[in-house]
Specification:
Elements lengths: L11 H13 L34 H11 L19 H13 L3 H10 L5 H4 L7 E2 L5 E5 L4 H6 L6 H12 L7 E5 L13 H18 L3 E5 L1 H8 L5 H4 L4 E4 L4 E7 L2 H6 L4 H17 L3
Parallel strand pairs: 2-3, 2-4, 4-6
Antiparallel strand pairs: 1-3, 5-6
This protein binds uracil (URA).
The site of uracil has 13 residues, from helix 7.
Catalytic activity: Hydrolyzes single-stranded DNA or mismatched double-stranded DNA and polynucleotides, releasing free uracil
Family: Belongs to the uracil-DNA glycosylase (UDG) superfamily. Type 4 (UDGa) family.
GO molecular function, one term: metal ion binding
Length: about 290
């Protein structure tokens, strides 16, 4: 999409309407100062022949030589968007050490707030750590926060969160009786799926969060959370509704995957499957008292 209008010539009202229109179309994250048209063919002058290598003597000389080579007028490049390193092993190790050092949920939240190893935090507005009751017997884990969650800093408060509340209410539960978190605590830009590297970096944190909450029942909301926490490649439609074990590090608790509320908003007929899963949870709760 190409906007030909010079934004500087728009009135404040017109600019606000343009931003609102972008947001309604899902364009709600500005990663760079300057928009990049990734579909545009590069102008011929950008297909560079390699510049002759300057004779560098020192890092300072490198910089001087580079600026001497930079054309004074010509194509300008927006800074590259923040990207996770290609081999995030060090970040994963840093996450493992940071997560293991947290003795309480408050410490874990603080540690995550300071953790700089995941580039998702650069584009997210908030750390979306958790909602609900840390002493609850049930912990629900989704995939990643969406726009509304990012704005409020609370998981599952958008449309799918409202449906989740109704699902819980159907078996007599509310947010005081559950604890809710996500595999990834920062919103991926534009609600894209978190990359395997981002998920791997966040893994030690969500696992530590589960260990610290120490619930009796872990419910994975959707295929992404199920794959991540139940260590399976099984599709969610086959996997859902089965009680499996999840090792918290202290003990093995009961874990079940069910369909994600966002999926149910698109496929309301599948609510009947989730209803069965909810009844299974209700009866497990009643039969296994603490
Ligand atoms: N979807 C999720 O997986 N998590 C949220 O917090 C919101 C929507």
């Amino acid at each position: 999409m190409r906007i030909e209008t010079d934004p500087g010539s728009l009135t404040a009202d017109a600019l606000a309407a343009l931003i609102e229109w972008y947001q309604a179309n899902g364009v709600d994250t500005a990663i760079d100062e300057v928009a990049i048209d990734r579909f545009a063919a590069p102008p011929p002058e950008q297909v560079f022949a390699p510049a002759p290598a300057p004779a560098f003597e020192s890092p300072t000389a490198d910089a001087a030589a580079f600026s001497a080579r930079a054309p004074s007028a010509g194509p300008t490049f927006a800074p590259a968007p923040p990207r996770a390193p290609e081999t995030p092993d060090l970040d994963i190790e840093a996450a493992r050490i940071a997560a293991a050092s947290a003795e309480t949920l408050d410490q874990l939240r603080e540690t995550l707030g300071r953790f700089e190893g995941c580039s998702l935090r650069l584009t997210a507005r908030s750390l979306v750590f958790a909602d609900g009751n840390p002493a609850a017997r049930i912990m629900l884990v989704g995939e990643a926060p969406g726009r509304e969650e990012d704005l409020q800093g609370v998981p599952f408060v958008g449309r799918s969160g409202q449906l989740l509340d109704r699902m819980l209410a159907a078996i007599g539960l509310d947010r005081e009786q559950v604890y809710i978190a996500n595999v990834v605590p920062w919103r991926p830009p534009g609600n894209r799926t978190p990359t395997p590297e981002e998920t791997a970096i966040c893994r030690p944190f969500v696992r530590r969060q589960i260990a610290l909450v120490d619930p009796d029942f872990l419910i994975c909301l959707g295929g992404a959370a199920a794959k991540e926490l139940l260590d399976t490649r099984e599709g969610i439609l086959r996997l859902r509704g089965q009680w499996l074990g999840f090792d918290t590090g202290k003990r093995t608790i009961r874990a079940m995957a069910t369909l994600h509320p966002a999926y149910l908003l698109r496929q309301p007929l599948q609510k009947r499957l989730v209803w069965r899963d909810l009844l299974a949870l209700k009866s497990a709760l009643a039969s296994e008292t603490r």
